[in-house]
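Structure ticket #2291
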Amino acid sequence: MIAMQVLKDITLMGGVGYDSNIYIIDGEVIIDTGTGLFFPEIKEEIDNRFDKKKIRSIVNTHCHYDHTGGNKSFRDWLKAELLVHEEDKKAAESGEGTLSKFFEKTAKVVTMDKALRAGQKIKTKNFSFDVLHTPGHSPGSICLYDKKNKILISGDTLFEDGIGRTDLPGGNKKDMFSSLEKLSKLQINVLLPGHGMPKMSGVNFLIKQLIAQQKQSENF
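Resolution: structure written out below.
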């Protein structure tokens, strides 16, 4: 089980196998919940590192099972509110559209507490993240951007060396290209992706490279 302090007040957990990375911000907000397969191990780590009573929100970067499969277990345990973008809310709640069958699992039905929209903020003691709607990997994919600290939590929109898949149900190449262009206008010093290791430099250059590659291959 991966458990590491990636930045002061931001901890990375999970990321094993198909599981997404799980980020804990200021001990107050959890970003994504993985498949739920490693919930007991992650629960133990959280109990050892944090005061669970202070964890008030669970934010999904998108609806796919490898990011939302643990939602019910985490919410039942923490009594924290569940948030996802409005375009992915129905899929996250019903399990239809989460691609759970891709992982040979059945998604648990769970009610989301809030539907996010672009422009809203996720605030903690030391961070203020803007919600950016970045479709392409899924209709309701989001990134979270802290302008002051120049941190981007990118879900499966952007990885340390590439982009999320657009060939799965709900994916869209043109939307992904538009999302990359949106991200290219930000100053990003730290990238915290949905899978793989964080990237601490060269993020803006990476995005420009990816946009150029997309233009070449798709003639956008």
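Closing remark: DSSP finds six helices and twelve strands in the chain.
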